[in-house]
Structures are given as structure tokens and as C-alpha cells.
Amino acid sequence: MSHGETDKQQATASEAYTAVVITVSDRCSRKEREDASGPALVALLGERGYRVVATRVVPDEQPQIEAAIRAAAERDAALVLTTGGTGLSPRDVTPEATAAVCTRMAPGIPEAMRAASMAITPHACLSREVAGILDRTLVVNLPGSPKAAIENVSAVIGPIAHGIEMLRGGQADCAAEGH
Questions:
Q1: Please, are residues 41 and 149 in contact by the beta-carbon 8 Å criterion?
Q2: Domain 18-167 CATH assignment equals 3.40.980.10
Q3: Which of 68, 100, 71, 82 shows the shortest CA–CA distance to 24?
Q4: Chain center to CA of 108
Q5: What Cα–Cα distance (Å) separates residue 172 from each residue in 8, 64, 79, 137?
Q6: 104: which of 26, 81, 94, 97 is 20 to 30 A away, CA to CA?
Q7: Longest CA span, the chain
Q8: Which residues of the chain have pLDDT under 50?
Q9: Per-residue b or e along 164-173, where b marks 16 or more CB atoms closer than 10 Å to that residue's CB
């Protein structure tokens, strides 16, 4: 099977899945700056066959980030992408909020994103994204810049579709695929 065929299958597999995009930004939440990362992620998810059912902008406040993630899981969203709040600034608490609400972590996703991003910029090692599972929802943190958010999620969007299929009780069989 060619790489292109694999991408088509993964895009088809994600067609039935819903997604929520949460932008974490003090300035965007106060309407001092327009959110560019959220809409960029919505467009990418749409191209990959996901149905984005909600977008939110919340400030860099851990309780509000946690509440937004929980609300998305209560909607039974298959995927939640957060953008912003993953750096070293004292206000960057998105990873802590994600870890606080997730019952299981998926460390390979952010490891793969950082590895791919390191090929683009050495600053990628400063990103603290995490990924985890809350109920039947996969939560993935992304950087706040539109360019970095798209680059990071693009590195893992195919495996994410496979992971969601497994999480949602699909018939994904890693052994049959040689993985």
C-alpha cells in the first residue's frame, strides 16, 4: 500500500469523528488579538475529514482550560486539540490542565511532534505539549503559533486517526499492519 493510500484510508477513518479546538490565550480571550491558530486547525481537521463541532477561546487559567476539555469530552468529541500555553512562561499551564483531567497519557504523540519539529527549529525542545485520554476523547496540546500548531499536528494526524479508532472500539489491528 502506498503512503498516499494510507493517508486516504486514515482520512476516511476520521470522517465519522468529531473534534473540538480550544485556543488558550489571554490576549485572544480578551479580544486584544485575533485567534489565528484555532481557525488554521479547524481548516486542517476539515481537510482530514473531521467534523469540528465546537471551538473555544479561553484564557491561560488552568481551571478554565480543564473545564473546556471536560466539556468537549462530555460532548463525546473524539479529538480535542488545544493550541497555546505549552511554553515555559509562568502562565503556560495547558499541559498541567490536560494532565489533570486525563486518566491515561499518550506520551508518544508529543514525542513524535517534538522530534518532527526539531528538524525545523531547535526551539522545539522547549515545548511542553502533552497528550492524553479522557473517557473516549483524545486530547492533544499544540503550540500557540499557527505555523507551529499545523506543523506539529501534521506530523501525527495519521497515527491519531488510528489511535482514535482503537479508543472508540473500532477494529484497528496494529498486529495485522505490522506495528
A1: yes
A2: yes
A3: 82
A4: 13
A5: 15, 34, 17, 17
A6: 26
A7: 50
A8: 1-14, 179
A9: bbebeeeebe
3-state secondary structure of 144: coil
What is the distance between the alpha carbons of residues 163 and 133, in angstroms, rounded to a whole number?
Answer: 11
Distance (Å, rounded) from C-alpha 165 to C-alpha 176? 15
User: DSSP per residue over 49-116, as a string?
Assistant: T-EEEEEEEE-S-HHHHHHHHHHHHHTT-SEEEEES--SSSTT--HHHHHHHH-SEE-THHHHHHHHH
Alpha-carbon 3 to chain mean position: 22
Burial of residue 86, with CB atoms counted within 10 A of its CB: 0-12 exposed, 13-18 middle, 19 or more buried: buried
**Rounded-to-integer distance, Cα 82 and Cα 137, Å:** 13
What letter would DSSP give residue 145? S
Between strands 79-83 and 131-134, the pairing is: unpaired
